[in-house]
Amino acid sequence: AMGDLNKTKHEKLKQFPHTNVPGLLLGRLATHKEFESLGIGQKMVDWVFSEAVRYANDIGCRILYLNPEKGVETWYIEKMKFAYIKNKKNEYVVFYDLQVYKNNNS
Fold first, then answer.
1. What CA–CA distance (Å, rounded) separates 10 from 35?
2. Between 20 and 30 A from 90 (CA), which of 40, 65, 73, 106?
3. pLDDT tens across 11-68, in order?
4. How far apart are the first and last CA of the chain?
5. Where do the H-state alpha helices sit in the chain?
6. Calculated CA dihedral for residues 37, 29, 15, 56, nearest 10 degrees
7. Residue 34 burial class via C-beta count within 10 angstroms: exposed 0-12, middle 13-18, buried 19 and up
8. Which residue, 102, 8, 105, 106, is CA-closest to 63?
9. Phi/psi of residue 94, each to 5°?
10. CB 38 within 8 A of CB 78
11. Are 84 and 73 in contact (CB under 8 A)?
């Protein structure tokens, strides 16, 4: 799905020229408990990034973002280096600049 984040919500978003930064909204990903800590989640997110960069080039979005399940947000923030904001319900919204990913993986 497509959506946007308001650039006033986080320092990393303030660099963008428009008030709302267009992005791809990712649905929730999960790894079955029996397969946790095997790098499967990392592989899924790596694939999502590669696809998101491809879509971003075609449709003009700049960030990948999602609303992770409570308790999972730290994995995205600490391991995957996503930035975060809190929405009106005080829930985490984590996001990543696709240009940074593209620059680090080209």
1. 34
2. 40
3. 988 988 889 999 999 887 888 889 988 989 889 888 988 888 888 888 888 999 998 8
4. 25
5. 40-59, 73-74, 98-104
6. 120
7. exposed
8. 102
9. -105, 145
10. no
11. yes
